[in-house]
Amino acid sequence: MARLAQLALERERTANAGQTEEQATAERKPAGKRVVAGVRECNRAVARGKALAVVLANDLAKSFEEPKLVSLLQQADSLNIPVVKALTRAEIGQTIAKDVTATVLVVLDVEGAEDVFGEFLRITDTGRAAPSVGA
């Protein structure tokens, strides 16, 4: 994940060369338009065909078998949406700038960061197979 963060930072510096910080900030899309978190919202995004990838917390208990989460992973697998088991629940919460934990996050939009997103999928080596919930 450190390599992914480094790629994103390098890309942002290159893209923003010659711009004021105000201009660069104005062009960035808010995180709320790029990702959703939580089982219910992620299920909706997958069902509506808006999900580009699913990020599942890597610190779930092995016995964790919430039916809605299992359904989400099965649906993502059937639609060939990459499922990446990465980040802790607390880190997913930080990603959406909330002081809460989240089990799952769905990436909705990677406009302007397509290369970083592609590298993210390559680094995580997800293939197209959904991991089991407690694995």
Characteristics of this structure?
alpha+beta, four-stranded mixed sheet, 4 strands, 10% strand, globular
Can you describe what's shown?
The chain has 135 residues and is of the alpha+beta class. The chain has one domain: 60s Ribosomal Protein L30, Chain: A, CATH 3.30.1330. The protein is 47% helix and 10% strand. It is built from seven helices and four strands; from the N terminus they run αααβαβαβαβα. It has helices spanning 2-15, 21-27, 31-34, 39-47, 67-78, 89-95, 114-124; strands spanning 35-37, 53-56, 83-85, 104-107. It has a four-stranded mixed sheet, sandwiched between helices. Helix 5 (67-78) links the parallel strand 2 (53-56) and strand 3. The longest helix has 14 residues, at 2-15. Mean pLDDT is 76; it is low at 126-131.
Summarize the structure.
With 135 residues, this protein is α+β, with helices and mostly antiparallel strands. The protein has helices at 2-15, 21-27, 31-34, 39-47, 67-78, 89-95, 114-124, and strands at 35-37, 53-56, 83-85, 104-107. Helix 1 packs antiparallel against helix 7 (114-124) and helix 4 runs parallel beside helix 5.
